[in-house]
Structure formats: structure tokens, C-alpha cells
Automatic annotation (TrEMBL):
GO MF annotation: an example: DNA-binding transcription factor activity
Domain HTH araC/xylS-type: 232-332
Region described as Disordered: spans on this chain: 339-358
Keywords: DNA-binding, Transcription, Transcription regulation
One Pfam family per UniProt: Arabinose_bd
Protein name: Transcriptional regulator, AraC family
PANTHER family: HTH-TYPE TRANSCRIPTIONAL REGULATOR GADX, HTH-TYPE TRANSCRIPTIONAL REGULATOR VQSM
Keyword DNA-binding: yes
Keyword Cytoplasm on entry: no
Organism, scientific name: Methylibium petroleiphilum (strain ATCC BAA-1232 / LMG 22953 / PM1)
Any one Gene Ontology cellular component term annotated for this protein: cytosol
Length: 358
């Protein structure tokens, strides 16, 4: 399986409205060391971020991280899921979902319009603080899009996404979370998709809803990530090289396998905001973090599994990827921390609400 990681930016943003005295317990529940917050390039396993979301929500009694003037109380998202489950089509469910968000939140709401063959959701945001405003929209869209995809059982390809803020450092994260066709600096944040999907039938049931909620929030922000992009295809192919048994193919090798010219593959990756090398680096980075967090393998063994000829090369690469050495990263995780999500899972009721990626 792919081992996803989440930028420390999202961790810091999720903690922004938490009282200082609550911070240690929340970080401990997620298995995230406080020292990691100071590393701008740091990343955490996706399951750790999911546990953090739950812990913050229960601490604030707010599934929306304290970003809105009104709390989205714990249980709100689950209630929304039940409310839209029997709407019949995605269009009816989406309209009810948007009304539900408007009932739960005061400062942010979405509006659906159909323009010929495009369905357009526009966000209206009255949050004044720029950082809160941005993170609120990121959170809203991930929750909304994840629920939409789950309802019809497949990823809804977003044809275009325009954000009402400037290009952020984490723009590469957006391509995984939302899609490839991104624009920034728009008057309002909007997402567009094929209007024909509004007639898609809802295929979920009460039984599948229980499973969806039990695995949330990870089921919302990971299960329906983009899998059909060229970057995703390259990553899936390179994943077979993890373990050190197979050599890493060149871009020319992959182009031959994909039946396209090397220049075509290069252009398609660049159009998605990446390169062959960045896809390879991201895959090895996430695998390295997984092994450092969840295995007893030595750093030399991890280096070999990831295909590095020398441990020193792995050390240099990991420092470039995360801002810390592999030994430092592992020491932070092991220094009195519980397993990611252990505390949050222990406290979580069987019907905990669904809440809200490399």
C-alpha cells in the first residue's frame, strides 16, 4: 500500500485555535512531537494527522478547528452524512450538504450553480484572518469533495479549481487533494466538475456509512485522492522498486512502458506540477517516514530498501525532504510518544463522527 504523509503546515494550521495548555495532550494523542512543529519541511503519517483532527475536534468540540464564528460541534459531519444518504442522486445530496454546512457555519458557505455542462461550487467566505480564511476553505473543500466522491463510489474529477488566495508553498499538496488544473488569486474560491455527475446515483447504504465513519477522517481525505493522473501512474509503477530488489527505471524506460514519447511523459508530469524525480523523491520520502515511524529496521536497512547505494546518500536526501536527519526524526517520534492515534482511538466512541494530503 501507498504510505501517505501530510505536510506539517496542515498540522500547525489545525492547532492554531487550540489553547496552549491543551497542546501536549492533543499532540500525544496523534503521536506528533512538539519539536516537529518547528521544522517547516516536516511531514507526518496520514494516520497521525487523522488522529490529530479527532483530538482537536474533541478538545474544541468543533469539527472545523475553531475557524468559524460558530462551532461545528462534534457529530455534525456524521449527521450530515445521514441526512444526504437517501437523497437518490448526487445533485440532491450536494444541495442538502451545502445547506447543512450553512446551518453549521456562519462565516463560510458554498453555492452550487450549473453553467451549461459545468457544475460550479462557489465559496463565500467572511473569515477575516488570511491564514484562517485559507485553511477554512481547504478544510471545507476536502470534506465536501470527499463526501461527494464517497456517495457515488468513485473520484469526482475536478475540471478546474480557482483559489481566492495567492500561490502557497504547499501547492503540490493541492494537486493530490483536489486536482491538477489549479489557479490562484481569484476573487472567490470555486471548483468545477462535469454537471452530468449531478444525476449520478448514490450507491451507499446505512451499513457502508458506518464503515465510512469508523475510518474517518482518513477515509475522507485519502480514499478518494487522485489516482488517474500521470504522477499517480508513475508513483504506482515506482512503488514496485521499493524493497531494493528491482532497479529504478529511467524516465525513458517508463515512457516506453506507458507507450508515449519521453518528451510527452515529461510534459504531462510538468503540466501536473511535477517531474519524474519529484515523483520518485516523494515516494521514497513517504516510505522512509513510514519505516522510521512503524518499523524496527535500522537506518542502513531502510536506506537499502529505498534503493540508496550508501546510507550517507539517504541521510542527505532525507534532510533535503524533511529538514531533519533520519535518526533525528526517529528519535523525536520515540521520545516518550505513543503510537500515532493510539490515545485518540482509545477515547473514540464506536460511532464517532467523520471529520477530515504526497
Amino acid at each position: 500500500m501507498d504510505k501517505d504523509t501530510v505536510s506539517i503546515y496542515f498540522v500547525r494550521a489545525a492547532l492554531a485555535h487550540l489553547a496552549p495548555e491543551a497542546l501536549p495532550a492533543v499532540l500525544r494523542a496523534a503521536g506528533i512531537p512538539a519539536e516537529m512543529l518547528a521544522h517547516r519541511q516536516a511531514r507526518v503519517p496520514a494516520r497521525a494527522f487523522a488522529a490529530l483532527w479527532l483530538a482537536v475536534a474533541h478538545q474544541l468540540d468543533d469539527e472545523f478547528f475553531g475557524l468559524d464564528a460558530r462551532r461545528m460541534k462534534v457529530g455534525s459531519f456524521a449527521l450530515m452524512c445521514h441526512a444526504v444518504l437517501h437523497c437518490g442522486t448526487l445533485g440532491r445530496a450536494l444541495r442538502r450538504c451545502l445547506r447543512s454546512f450553512s446551518a453549521f457555519l456562519d462565516d463560510l458557505h458554498g453555492e452550487l450553480a450549473v453553467d451549461d455542462d459545468r457544475a460550479v461550487i462557489t465559496l463565500h467566505n467572511r473569515i477575516a484572518d488570511p491564514a484562517d480564511r485559507r485553511f477554512a476553505e481547504e478544510t471545507y473543500l476536502v470534506m465536501l469533495h470527499g463526501l461527494m466522491c464517497w456517495l457515488i463510489g468513485r473520484r469526482i474529477q475536478l475540471a478546474h479549481i480557482a483559489f481566492g488566495h495567492a500561490l502557497p508553498e504547499e501547492a503540490r499538496e493541492y494537486r493530490v487533494m483536489y486536482g491538477e488544473d489549479l489557479a490562484f488569486g481569484a476573487e472567490r474560491t470555486t471548483i468545477e466538475f462535469d454537471a452530468a455527475l449531478l444525476e449520478a446515483p448514490i450507491i451507499q447504504t446505512e451499513a457502508t456509512l458506518k464503515s465510512f465513519l469508523r475510518s474517518a477522517p482518513q477515509s475522507v481525505f485519502l480514499k478518494y485522492k487522485s489516482t488517474d493522473s500521470w504522477t499517480a501512474r508513475v508513483r504506482r509503477r515506482l512503488r514496485r522498486c521499493l524493497g531494493g530488489q528491482a532497479g529504478w527505471p529511467t524516465l525513458d524506460d517508463l515512457a516506453l512502458e506507458f507507450h508515449v514519447a519521453p518528451s510527452t511523459l515529461r510534459r504531462r508530469l510538468e503540466a501536473e506540477g511535477g517531474t519524474y524525480q519529484s515523483a520518485k523523491d516523494d515516494l521514497r520520502r513517504d516510505a522512509a517516514i513510514h519505516h522510521l515511524c512503524h518499523s524496527r529496521l535500522s537506518i542502513a536497512e531502510i536506506s537499502t530498501l529505498l534503493g540508496f547505494q550508501e546510507p550517507s546518500a539517504f541521510h542527505r536526501a532525507f534532510k533535503k525532504w524533511t529538514g531533519s536527519q533520519p535518526g533525528e526524526y526517529r528519535a523525536l517520534r520515540a521520545d516518550g510518544m505513543s503510537a500515532p492515534g493510539a490515545d485518540a482511538t482509545a477515547r473514540r466512541p464506536a460511532t464517532a463522527p467523520a471529520l477530515l494530503s504526497g
